[in-house]
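Ticket closed. Logging final result for Aspartate-semialdehyde dehydrogenase.
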Amino acid sequence: RKPTLAVVGATGAVGTVMLGILSERPDVYGEIRLVASPRSAGKKLTVRGEEVVVQALSPEVFDGVDIAMFDVPDEVSAQWAPIAAERGAVAVDNSGAFRMDPDVPLVVPEVNPAAAKVRPKGIISNPNCTTLSMIVALGALHREYGLAELVVASYQAASGAGQEGIDVLYSQLEKVAGDHGLGQRAGDVREAVGEGGPFPAPLALNVVPWAGSLKEDGWSSEELKVRNESRKILGLPGLRVNATCVRVPVVTTHSLAVHAVFEREVDQKAAQDVLAAAPGVVLHDDPASHVFPTPNDVVGTDPTWVGRVRRSLDDPKALDLFLCGDNLRKGAALNTAQIAELVATEFTS
Ligand code: 2RA
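Final structure:
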């Protein structure tokens, strides 16, 4: 039978992308129920070409639901994913609430699909978008060479901070547009765009070395997520990982510069071949012709794009590469949809 799906957070930035993805991908569901806060209840949204009325989040809304996706803030997931699971649904959660819970698998279908079957709490977590933007490509290289260490710098898009992040970036860009003198005196962009919004410094005409909240010893929550989630997904609890997460004035698509050290010696051409053959990865790597991924060329697409693949000049076991992935698609909605499809096969097979 075709399972019933609930999409919780259907009206948010990720939820909106999710409705598009559900309309494009193979239709494996019976009913699709759209759920949001009481404020959005009654709204009509289109999924699979049909208008669906949004229902308010309540325990009863999960009755008869087989799979419930959550694209909502951590505290909402923390409260409601267990309620959905209690009512019999498999909850696929895109928040940070359960990712590091040892009884909740953290799943990337191209990397660790079998983990989705072991879910003692009835909950499966979807990784953070920054981890997801690199892990499919790194998983392929790990299978070939054995990963030992990662040094990562992210270039994260504004939409990682939700619709508010997108709105604030556009509003700041409007405020600086046309002023050709800006960006040449310390603090002049800050004066022009003012304070407020999800970014702790102006994002227009700037980069901001911060995402998430402050954790111990100066690390940001985002940097710790990259470390902890990579370890869990790859099944490498001792993997050495150092990340520096940076926000850049890009609307959507996270990029990462990665220095990856392996157990075995690597070869540039062989590594490129591994990446080119990996499901979910596109090798886009011919710098002589200016072929490399950029966020603006990647946004709206599903795969992880990889370019600038080089063997380290100082370490024959290390590769340097540049990756881009749409943080709202593979980084959030698409991976959640792929996990839900894995679960859906349990109903249909
Ligand atoms: C960000 N990774 O980009 C976060 C969103 N989950 O801010």
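Residues 329-348 form the longest helix (20 residues). No further action required.
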